[in-house]
Amino acid sequence: MQASSPPTPAGCDGACATCDLHERDAFLPLSDAERDAIAVFRSGSREVAAGRLIIEEHRRSPNLYTLYSGWAFRFKTLSDGRRQILNFLLPGDFMGLQDEFAEGTTYGVEAATDCTLCVFPRDRLWDFFNRQPKLGYAITWLAANEEKAVDDNLVTAGRRAAAERVAMVLLHLYRRAERVGLAADGRVPFFPFQQQHIADAVGLSLVHTNKTLRKLQRLGLHRLEGNVLEILEPHALEQLGDYFERPQRPTPLI
Amino acid sequence: MQASSPPTPAGCDGACATCDLHERDAFLPLSDAERDAIAVFRSGSREVAAGRLIIEEHRRSPNLYTLYSGWAFRFKTLSDGRRQILNFLLPGDFMGLQDEFAEGTTYGVEAATDCTLCVFPRDRLWDFFNRQPKLGYAITWLAANEEKAVDDNLVTAGRRAAAERVAMVLLHLYRRAERVGLAADGRVPFFPFQQQHIADAVGLSLVHTNKTLRKLQRLGLHRLEGNVLEILEPHALEQLGDYFERPQRPTPLI
DNA sequence: CGACCCTTTGAGGGCCGTCAAAGGGGGTGG
DNA sequence: CCACCCCCTTTGACGGCCCTCAAAGGGTCG
After folding, report:
1. Most distant CA atoms of chain A, gap in Å
2. In this structure, are residues A177 and A224 in contact, taking their beta carbons and an 8 Å threshold?
3. What confidence tens digit (pLDDT) does each residue in B85-99 have?
4. What's the domain range around B126?
5. CATH code: domain of residue B166
6. What average pLDDT does range B16-35 have in this prediction?
7. Nucleotides of D under 7 A from a protein CB
8. Do A166 and A133 share a structural domain?
């Protein structure tokens, strides 16, 4: 099941001016001056292997990151080991802001697949805002957008029944993936999450998550086998999860 | 029980230069130029009675707000009426950012007590960022800080047992109130929430929330009667809720 | 005094968690 | 090339936490 892996993404050559992520229509176009400012802000890139931590819980990260390729997730753990996934990270997502303004990091970020990251030193953030208010505005946009995702997950964990939770998270992950070209035609060809991840995201136990996934699959709503996810009945999943979303407009990319 | 109400706060006279919230040491001091910029951004003030909506769900608000006085909360509802409270709002909190970047508002904000708000027209936000990058940075700070609160609530709803949830939310509300002078010495003299609010915040039913509150009260951890909340054993509540937090540093105030 | 809202308590059941163990695929080492 | 091991998935059994239903208690307001 772990055998298939996505085609290795085009590496980031370190030049933001030729960054191919910016070409995608999921993201807002940038002026040359803005690209230059981002290049100045950026200190380099970093590779993190699947399963390793990008940001450690309870330790202040000296860097902020943009996920350039791969899948990751943000999480918190309680002292007895219970883990809650807060939200998922896909290419273009910005991370590390929350602890800019706190005493210490309060969450961790783990790479679900091999990941490539753009690295931004935390201590250049204010200078970046100052030089390019428009990009500061863009970062605020990204922060607000991430909060919306956490809001949705909170409603899921707090108020949805098991089948509703699973329906919602499958649809959410598919749509996020489709938006950045990691899925198409109802199919995520390299779905990187195990059932434990889904359980940790929606607030169910692993066993009950499995039973619920099987139930929805028997109903023909989706297919999750190996690491291929297929959304067979998007409308039914929407209905079941009470989860309707308009297509997202292009977002900024730092 | 609804009889006692807090002393009416000093009204906002409309001049940010003399705003008394800024004097509190919970907030970062501002330069005169910054206060002026905020005054230009601000279009007026608004009063909302307890129980009324500040921001309506699914409708785009033309304004952003800072809560000047009172208690409020942000929430989402599912189509069958189930409601989840996302986070609580106290004086100094900024609201409305999330839908700046979305198609429509995806959450509502309700006043739990009579509230006074500073009103900021949404369409002046970019100009505000442009003129005062430092205050744009401050808004990002506020957004990131609010996301941290939602993160915590998600862990609560997703992974904590009933008693843990209740312990955590009581402690959280007390600390938030204490920080802005609405509580002291383990006592919140005008606690504005009903058990239904607590239930909606932690993801439990009203009945089970009541039973859990009574259980913790019998154990002597807290007292909640009428609209007075007393935290009797903060250390025990921390331990039970696995919820430890360092005192928060001063935050920006817009 | 009655209506209404919120709180409180009890009864019963179902959803979901925990425990346990088998199945299956891939990787590793012999 | 095969055997073994490990990780993940799957299924069953059982129990308990929490939800729903129901109704009484208490305070406030008209």
Report:
1. 55
2. no
3. 999 999 999 999 877
4. 25-132
5. 1.10.10.10
6. 89
7. 8-13, 17-22, 27-29
8. no
Whether A50 is covered by a domain: the verdict is: yes
* Residue pLDDT, tens place only, A24-37: 899 999 999 999 99
Q: Pick B167 or A12 by higher pLDDT.
A: B167
Q: Residue B111 forms beta bridges with which residues?
A: B72
Residues B64, B124 within the same domain: yes
Residues A27 and A107 in one domain: yes
Contact A148 B102 (CB under 8 A): yes
Is A110 in the same domain as A219?
A: no
List C-alpha distances in Å: B10 to B21, B48, B116: 10, 16, 10
pLDDT category, A105, cuts 50, 70, 90? low
Å between B108 CA and nearest CA of chain A: 12
Question: Is there a domain that residue B74 lies in?
Answer: yes
Between the CA of A27 and the C1' of C14, what is the distance in angstroms? 46
CB contact under 8 A, A78 and B150: no
CA dist., res. B189 & res. B73, Å (int): 19
Same domain membership, residue A97 and residue A22: yes
Q: What is the CA radius of gyration of chain B?
A: 18
Tell me which chain B residues have a C-beta less than 8 angstroms from the C-beta of A55. Answer: none
Residue pLDDT, tens place only, B133-156? 999 999 999 999 999 999 999 999
Query: Mind listing the pLDDT tens digit for each residue in A67-89?
Result: 999 999 999 999 999 999 999 99
Q: What gap in Å lies between CA A8 and CA B126, rounded to an integer?
A: 39
User: At CA B111, angle to CA B7 and CA B46, rounded to 5?
Assistant: 80
Total domains in the fold of chain A: 2
Same domain, residue pair A141 and A23: yes
Query: Do residues B128 and B211 share a domain?
Result: no
- The model carries a pTM of 0.95
- pLDDT given for residue A19 in this prediction: 85
B120 part of a folded domain: yes
A21 and A140 in a single domain? The answer is yes
Residues of A in contact with B133 (CB under 8 A): 129-130, 133, 136
pLDDT of residue A10: 57
Nucleotide nearest B2 (Cα, C1'): D28
